[in-house]
Specification:
157 residues, Beta-Lactamase, 24% strand, globular
């Protein structure tokens, strides 16, 4: 895998263009699902999901999932403190293997579920300092953990 983050940005842009070509552009759900599959495939990740944040319901509603199973919750509650924490950290992925001292209250609430589904990274989607969603990334196909170098492309998303 290349170490140049600019190559990943261009790769993801090309994948986004491809996703628009193969998905019906009038169907937002299908575009998100196609983008998730392209993202997971390009990073050789076994499972993941994309959720949209609802400020009114204070919850993350999953738009697309792959490999998480039918028992995975379709929505996760979010507190105002969770939202502030993500906004403060920007696009920095949260690694579930960093130890309990580094986990946010949100990750502690859902740690059992994420561990059972082998979710390793939680990437908040922040646009103009507002939480708009979340990406969950599971184990890599080769079984290797996400190193700090491997997290760099996740921030480029």
């Amino acid at each position: 895998m290349s170490e140049n983050p600019n190559k990943f940005v261009h790769t993801f842009a090309a994948l986004a263009d491809l996703g628009q070509e193969v998905a019906h552009t009038s169907n937002f759900q299908e575009m998100i699902r196609t983008s998730l599959h392209l993202l997971l495939g390009s990073l050789a990740i076994m499972r993941g999901g994309v959720a949209r944040y609802s400020r009114f319901g204070h919850e993350l509603n999953f738009l697309a999932m792959r490999g998480l199973g039918e028992d995975f919750p379709l929505s996760l509650s979010v507190t105002r403190d969770d939202e502030k924490e993500w906004q403060a950290n920007g696009l920095e992925p949260f690694d579930l293997d960093d130890g309990l001292n580094c986990l946010t209250p949100f990750l502690l609430r859902y740690k059992t579920i994420f561990e059972a589904k082998k979710i390793e990274l939680v990437v908040p989607l922040i646009v103009r300092d507002e939480l708009v969603g979340l990406i969950l990334l599971g184990e890599k196909a080769n079984g290797q953990p996400f190193t700090s170098r491997r997290r760099s492309p996740c921030r480029a998303m």
